[in-house]
Amino acid sequence: MLVKPKTTVEKLIRVACEFWKLPGKVVQYRLILSGAKLHYEKTMEQLEIKENDKFFLFEEQIGGKPVIYLFPPIKTSDIEVELTLISNWAFSAVYPVVPITAVEVPPAGSSVKWIVTANPDGSLYDPSAGLALSYLFWEATSISITPNYLLVLDENSPNTFSSLPFDPSHPTVNPFESLLLPFSDFIPYLDGTLSKLTLHVSARNDIITYWLPHFVRIRERGQQIAFRFLPQAEYEQAAKLQISPKPDVVTRVFMVFKGVKENEWNFYTQKLEDVCWRSVVGVSEHTRDSTKFRCLEWGGMEAW
C-alpha cells in the first residue's frame, strides 16, 4: 500500500477497511507498529514511517461495564479486591478510581486493587475516597499484538492468527458454542437466563439496559443475535480476580455476542433446550446462600 507523508493513521485505516470490506466503523480498528498503538491524527511523516514498514491492523474490543458485587454474611471491613488483566487487555476506566499498576510477570498486563467495607445487602463503602457504592466498576479495551490483518506499505496481505481460549481482542461467538435468536425472543430469554445464573433483578436490568442499544442496532441491521456465556475458568484466565478474605462463592457471568446476517443463520443449529448456561458458566448451588460470603460479577462484550 503506497501512502504519502501527510497521510494520517485514520486515513490509512479507512483505506484498509475499504480494501478488505471490513465491517463496522473506522474507530473500531487500531494500527500497531513495533508493538505500539498509533494515534489516529498522526501522519506517516510524524511517525517517521519508512518503505516496507509493517503495520498490524486489528479490531479493538471493549469489555463493557463489568461490575463486581460483594455480599458478606456480616458487615466486613478491609476487603481487598484485586483484578489483574492479561496483556491483551488494558483498563480504560475503573470506579472508584484507583491506580492502575503494570504487572511484569506474563501473561499479566495490569492490575487494580480496591479496599472496601461490604454489608450483607451488597452496599459498599470506600473509606479512602469516602464513597458509598453499589458495586465496583471496571472497563477495558483490547491491546492485542495478535493482528486481524497485516499492512505492508508496498502490498496488501491478510494475516492469520490463533486464539487463546478467551482472547479479549478476538472474542469468538462460533455456532458450535453459541445460540442464535431474533431480538424479540432474545430479550426475554436473556432475562430468564440471567435469573438462572443468580443475577438479582437490579443486576439483570442493568446488564440488559446497558447493552440494549447494541441489541437494537443489530435488529435494525436485519440481523439476529448470536451469544454465549463464558465458563468462569476460561474468563479467569483473562481477568484474574483475587479477594481477601476469600469468598465462599464466586459467580462471574460474562456474555459475548454479535449480530449474524441472514445467510449465516443456518450455521447456528444448537437448540435452546440443549444448552444449560448454569452448567457452562459453573454456577455453585450455594450462590444464593446468604450465610456465605458471596461475590457476583457480570459483564459483556460485543464481538465485531
List keywords for this structure.
single chain, 304 residues, alpha+beta, 7-stranded mixed β-sheet, 5 helices
Secondary structure class reads alpha+beta
Gross morphology: globular
The value of Rg in angstroms is: 21 Å
Span from first to last CA? 24 Å
- Considering DSSP H and I runs of 4 or more, what fraction of the residues is helical? 10-25%
Total helical elements: 5
Fraction of residues in β-strands? 35-45%
- Uncertain segments: 146-150, 154-164
Q: What's the number of extended β-strand segments?
A: 18
The residue-averaged pLDDT reads 87
- Major beta-sheet overview: 7 strands, mixed
Placed side by side, the strands forming the largest sheet appear as 6-11-4-18-17-15-14
Q: What is the H/E order? A: HEEEEEEEEEEEEEEHHEHEEHE
